[in-house]
Design brief:
342 residues; Rossmann fold; binds threonylcarbamoyladenylate; binds magnesium ion; ATP-binding
């Protein structure tokens, strides 16, 4: 059931959290499948509903730094600097977990992923939940998609994933469109586990430390999760073949893409093309979408487009390779993962 976030819906949402029920929650990045982070049974419901292996930790959403301190202990100064710079916003920090806090949301890890989202509906809900009796201090929320599928960027996407019995607060289309940047702050220096809207350079500048980039993948590369000498928890966002639409995704340079279309000629069917360079085709059935010039614009529409292509019954998605440069890291990472499942 999709509800506009009026006062009744917000009260129902707080009550749902208090009662250990799940909720579709808008954030500025993607929609989350939310529950009280300190209610083990509710957290178990998230794993079950998503079909997510229970050893993959969830991000806990908090209204502010004070609430973060409830879940994390010994927060290093550089992590506090990142909170100051980017919260509320699309940045998740992996921090040492306060012993006993949100055990099941953290999947038993010694660390916890915390984020303070900026979406007004998410903020309003977190604040109301914190003030409720009994209070809900943190909201565990993975992306509201079934495990391994494309993250939802609208309320309708969430309803399409989980059906009509889930309460979904409608916060409109997500502005950022790809999941938050994840920075591991538990190793004495910032390490990016998942690239996103907030780029490595901005993180380095805000905390005055060099930043390692660990999560980004190239086609066929394996992410941190497969790094045997690393004790990082299994992380679905870092599985290579995550973000998979039904269609097969291929990344090509503009010339190869055009050559492929030329070979198929009028026979090109069930194919979608997403390119910056204008393409020509003799087929009337080709689904052609022009890629915007800025990485933020591509991030904003990417997951919606992948769903749209699936809805059109497309079997192949041909995407023009992205420009070089770290500003494209977040989008490049999602595209490489989508292509890796092909
Ligand atoms: O933008 C986002 O981050 C969205 C919205 C809803 O906030 N959430 C999201 O959650 O993308 P999810 O569960 O789909 O991805 C969270 C990622 C996973 O790869 C998870 O393993 C990793 O964060 N993660 C969570 N806690 C962690 C921890 N303690 N250590 C390492 N990775 C962690
Ligand atoms: Mg996810």
């Amino acid at each position: 059931m999709i509800l506009l976030p009026d006062s009744h819906a917000m009260a129902a949402a707080v009550q749902a959290l208090q009662q250990g029920q799940l909720l579709g929650l808008p954030t500025e990045t993607v929609y989350g499948l939310a529950a009280d982070a300190e209610n083990g049974a509710a957290v178990a419901r998230i794993y079950e509903r998503k079909g997510r292996p229970s050893d993959h930790p969830l991000i806990v959403h908090v209204p502010d730094v004070a609430a973060a301190q409830h879940f994390a202990a010994d927060i290093p100064p550089f992590a506090l600097a990142l909170m100051q710079a980017f919260w509320p916003g699309p940045l998740t920090l992996i921090l040492p977990r306060r012993p006993g806090a949100a055990e099941s949301a953290a999947a038993g890890q010694a660390t916890i992923g915390l984020r303070s989202p900026s979406h007004p509906v998410a903020r309003q809900l977190m604040l109301a939940a914190l003030q409720a009796e009994p209070p809900v201090r943190g909201i565990a929320a993975p992306s509201a998609n079934r495990f391994g599928r494309v993250s939802p960027t609208s309320a309708a996407h969430v309803a399409a994933e989980f059906g009509d019995d889930l309460l979904v607060l409608d916060g409109g289309d997500c502005e950022v469109g790809i999941e938050s940047t994840i920075v591991d702050c538990s190793r004495g220096r910032p390490v990016i586990l998942r690239p996103g809207h907030i780029a490595a350079a901005a993180i380095a500048q805000a905390c005055g430390l060099p930043v390692d980039v660990h999560g980004a993948t190239g086609p066929g590369e394996h992410a941190l999760i497969d790094d045997a000498e690393d004790d990082t928890p299994r992380a679905p966002g870092t599985l290579t073949a995550h973000y998979a639409p039904n269609a097969k995704v291929r990344l090509m340079d503009a010339a190869s893409l055009q050559a492929g279309l030329d070979v198929l000629g009028a026979q090109a069917r069930h194919i979608a093309v997403y390119s910056r360079t204008p393409m020509k085709s003799a087929s009337r059935e080709l689904v052609l979408r022009r890629m915007p010039a800025q990485p933020e614009q591509v991030a904003h529409e990417l997951f919606r487009l992948l769903r749209e292509f699936d809805g059109l019954g497309v079997r192949l998605i041909w995407i023009e390779e992205l420009p070089a440069g770290s500003a494209w890291d977040g989008v490049r990472d999602r595209l490489n993962r989508a292509a890796a499942s092909a």
